[in-house]
Recover the amino acids of this structure.
């Protein structure tokens, strides 16, 4: 019976991963005008537990959660165990300027991750996580005396995903190191057009830029544990991602056309069509560090700081106007761990956090900032070490100053963390 259960778990996980890897390229996972720049809006790579703690990840550790950001934490997996983390994310956003407000929402894959011990000193993990998202639709109308209305349209969708395989290694009882080998893949489509609905003397123009990245990058991590006393321990963490040149296949098409109706568009000429054009996107170096202070399994206080050198970003040999970015985060979890059968609420993990992020976008001499506060719950699954995790973040990105857009958002992440004991000989089946 237990063997059948494990086979079902493995088969289900493989099917979910395969189906997700096929569909993840086509789904629109964001609605933000700021995803028009660079490689889109960067995705938080942490799980639902970490979202409820402000996104901290540099030194946090737990045997039933997989922390991709610092692969050295894979050594926390217990022997003879199998760990699965999967979740979805939803976001509701209010976009506002000085004179207009709109709302958007979307739901998408958050993460699919698997982890298991290999030897006494080596554990492994693999999974699928989004890296960046592109999703926007912007229209602007200008009126000119000689030609009437001119409609400018900008639309984009897609993103970059990460499939990774990583390992964590126990060097000493207190020191661990690890790495992830990550394959970046996906599809991004950027389209812009100029239309002249009031004039028959001007042809409309549409430019479509399709980019399909596919390449491998590495990131590394280390943790060091200090036992402060019998009950208290301090863990320090550090991570490093090297500069990565990602190869990209690019299709760039410029068309002259005229729109006869909503359904009918006549293309008169393809001015330029470069199919199979290859280039590189340079993802810059990223470094981070953090701490985690805990008392047994009763509570954990963690803090992070990460920095990325986006001024070195290039796309097809051209530097962009991106700025260096950083994120500071603080999170707290308390776990009453009651043994009372009748008190379920005393078995729930309660989480709180806050973060500040200076983004890589600088528009109209204004570098955009983001701030968020978060809350979360870890809900135990009866008769199991598994948990259902819920994380909620309330935040704001951007400003209405200088005719920019301010985004107020609510992110919700719901995840399932499955912990199974494997390879144990049972007396009864």
């Amino acid at each position: 019976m237990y063997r059948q259960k494990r086979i079902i778990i493995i088969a289900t996980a493989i099917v979910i991963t395969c189906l997700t890897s096929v569909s993840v390229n086509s789904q629109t996972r964001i609605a933000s005008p700021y995803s028009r720049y660079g490689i889109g809006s960067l995705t938080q790579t942490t799980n639902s537990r970490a979202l409820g703690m402000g996104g901290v990840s540099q030194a946090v550790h737990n045997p039933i959660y997989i922390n991709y950001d610092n692969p050295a934490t894979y050594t926390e997996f217990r022997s003879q165990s199998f760990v699965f983390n999967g979740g979805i994310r939803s976001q509701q956003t209010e976009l506002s300027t000085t004179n207009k407000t709109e709302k958007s929402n979307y739901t998408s894959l958050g993460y699919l991750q698997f982890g298991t011990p290999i030897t006494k000193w080596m554990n492994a993990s693999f999974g699928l996580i989004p890296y960046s998202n592109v999703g926007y639709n912007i229209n602007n109308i200008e009126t000119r005396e000689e030609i009437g209305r001119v409609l400018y349209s900008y639309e984009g969708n897609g993103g970059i995903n990460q499939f990774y395989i990583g390992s964590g290694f126990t060097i000493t009882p207190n020191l661990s190191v690890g790495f992830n080998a990550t394959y970046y893949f996906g599809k991004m489509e950027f389209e812009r057009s100029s239309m002249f609905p009031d004039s028959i003397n001007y042809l409309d123009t549409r430019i479509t830029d399709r980019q399909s990245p596919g390449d491998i990058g590495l990131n590394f991590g280390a943790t060091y544990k200090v036992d402060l006393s019998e009950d208290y321990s301090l863990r320090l963490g550090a991570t490093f991602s090297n500069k990565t040149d990602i190869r990209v296949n690019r299709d760039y098409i410029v068309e002259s056309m005229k729109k006869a109706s909503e359904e009918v568009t006549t293309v008169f000429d393809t001015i330029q069509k470069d199919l199979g054009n290859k280039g590189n996107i340079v993802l810059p170096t990223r470094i981070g560090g953090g701490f985690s202070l805990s008392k047994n399994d009763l509570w954990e206080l963690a803090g992070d700081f990460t920095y990325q050198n986006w001024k070195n970003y290039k796309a097809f040999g051209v530097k962009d106007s991106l700025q260096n970015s950083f994120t500071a985060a603080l999170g707290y979890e308390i776990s009453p761990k009651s043994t009372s059968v009748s008190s379920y609420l005393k078995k729930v993990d309660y989480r709180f956090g806050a973060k500040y992020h200076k983004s890589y976008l600088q528009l109209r001499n204004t570098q955009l900032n983001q701030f968020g506060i978060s809350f979360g719950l870890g809900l135990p699954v009866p008769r199991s070490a598994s948990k259902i995790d819920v994380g909620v973040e309330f935040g704001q990105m951007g400003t209405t100053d200088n005719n920019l857009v301010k985004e107020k958002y609510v992110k919700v992440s719901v995840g399932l963390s499955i912990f199974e004991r494997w390879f144990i000989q049972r007396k009864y089946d």
Notes: The mean pLDDT is 86.
